[in-house]
Amino acid sequence: MEQTLAGRTALVTGSTSGIGLGIALLYAQAGAKVMLNGFGKPEEIARARAEVGAAMGVAEAPYSAADLSKAAAVKDMVQQAQDALGSLDILVNNAGIQFVAPIDEFPDDKFEAIMAINFASNWYAIKAALPGMKARNWGRIVNIASAHGLIASAEKSAYVSAKHAVVGLTKTVAIEIAQTPITCNAICPGFVRTPLAEAQVGPLAKQFGVSEEVALKDHLLAHQPSKRWIEVEEVARMALYLVGPGSGGVNGAALSIDGGWTAN
């Protein structure tokens, strides 16, 4: 693979599985030194570190177990990345959680956790990473928002609010750094094929008494006109473009990759 990120360093949050791992792996294959972050079973984290490490030519990628619901932990994670990698050129805010319920039945602790991890962690990470990017006169910030950062769905008040806030944060940061060689953009995926997303298909099939194929197309992907999953690699390649050569003019964008969902 072309080494478009040779000499660059990156921190990808929520990167022990799913979209984050896909982005981290592609960055490493493109020549970047990458630090991972996220929760999971020890063996899964070890496997992710080994896979990304192999792409970097080392035994394992550096890793932070920071709890992104805590501001101090986010700040420490950014410092840890700078120490481990020597600098921090690229920040990808990907970590996120979900909970679904009507707003009048939504548990307060779930709301607070979603806002902390899905939104506030982005704010604290950007605040901590920007001084180093400014000092080195180069940087790329990519926030993984969602189609729900642009539109809404019922029973997802916390998630939709957090992802809308991420898009707003992206635009604000982009304006503040517009006259520097630093950019800040958001990616807004629809339903992406990950183990967590695929696990929703079976229960929907049972709930509606239909096949899993019908449950996927008519229920889970009801708002996604393509009626197919967005693949992790598709999101990762968009994230690679935003941090690679020729991307400097893209700033403050909320880029949809949702099979036509937000075109409706």
From TrEMBL:
It comes from Paracraurococcus ruber. SUPFAM superfamilies: NAD(P)-binding Rossmann-fold domains. InterPro entries: 3-OHbutyrate_DH, NAD(P)-bd_dom_sf, Sc_DH/Rdtase_CS, SDR, SDR_fam. Pfam families: adh_short. Belongs to the short-chain dehydrogenases/reductases (SDR) family. This is 3-hydroxybutyrate dehydrogenase.
